[in-house]
Amino acid sequence: MKRWTVEENKIMSENYGKVSTGGLALRLRRSRKAIIDHAYWLGLHYYPEMPYSLTIEQTQVIIGSLLGDAHCRPARHNPGLQFCCKEADTDYLVWKYEILKSLCGNLGFHPYTDKRGNSVMVQFNTRSSPLLREFHQAFYINSRKIYPVNKLPELEALGLAVWFMDDGSISKGFARLATLGFTIEENCSIKDYFKKQWNIGAKVQFDNNGNHKLPYLEFNKAETQKLIDIISPYILPCMSRKIGLRS
């Protein structure tokens, strides 16, 4: 790892929070993640005033992420959000952070090993906020993530793309959405949602895991192409493999 020089630390101290993370990354020739982590190490706490409302882009990223890999942490007063991904997809996580930065400050990124011990993951957390109550209420009952009946109608193409970047894949022209965190009944409701909202047909399929059947959605080649046509404008270059393209 390239060591930080005194001059670089001075530039960080004078500019962090005034210049964009991307701007500092270009100037110092480091990744945006490295800028955020080093700012945290230097004690350059950047806590912007909490917004009074969320932007459309922020709302879409939150809904799509909660349908995917994100979690909404309960709190005594206000909930917070936790986002994670494999270390190899850190650029994707940084993209989410940049969009949600007004909710985060520079709390930094934290690596950890997943429960199975075979992947290094990276995560970041938002601060707790009353703006996130509606998401916790929509997505959780008794600490279990549920199919958010009242939130899916708000999902637009960007949010759908985020969901697919989190949990989607394509193999031999067939798209698959890993919805195993939802019940079989909820998967059927999600299948109906795709048909009603996007005119995309899907089937609920199952992976066998011992005595358990884990549901997921599968799209045939024609329906997969419909899905790609909708989400491809929002798929990040670093995640283009998700729709069968090379980055």
Structure summarized in a few sentences:
This protein is of the alpha+beta class and 247 residues long. The chain contains ten helices and ten strands.
Could you please describe the fold and organization of this structure?
The structure is a single chain. With 247 residues, the chain is α+β, with helices and mostly antiparallel strands. The chain folds into 3 domains: 6-42; 56-145, Endonuclease I-creI (Roll); 156-243, Homing endonucleases (Endonuclease I-creI, Roll). It has 10 helices and 10 strands. The chain has helices at residues 6-15, 21-28, 32-42, 56-67, 90-99, 101-104, 133-139, 157-167, 184-198, 221-231; strands at residues 71-73, 80-86, 110-113, 120-125, 140-141, 144-145, 168-171, 174-177, 203-209, 212-219. The strands form 3 sheets. Strands 1-2-4-3 form a 4-stranded antiparallel sheet. The protein has a 4-stranded antiparallel sheet with strand order 7-8-10-9. It has a two-stranded antiparallel sheet with strand order 5-6. A hairpin with a 2-residue loop joins strand 7 (168-171) and strand 8 (174-177). Helix 4 (56-67) runs parallel beside helix 8. The longest helix is centred in the last third of the chain and has 15 residues, at 184-198. The protein is globular and about 60 Å long. It starts with 5 loop residues before the first helix and ends in a 16-residue tail after the last helix. The mean pLDDT is 88.
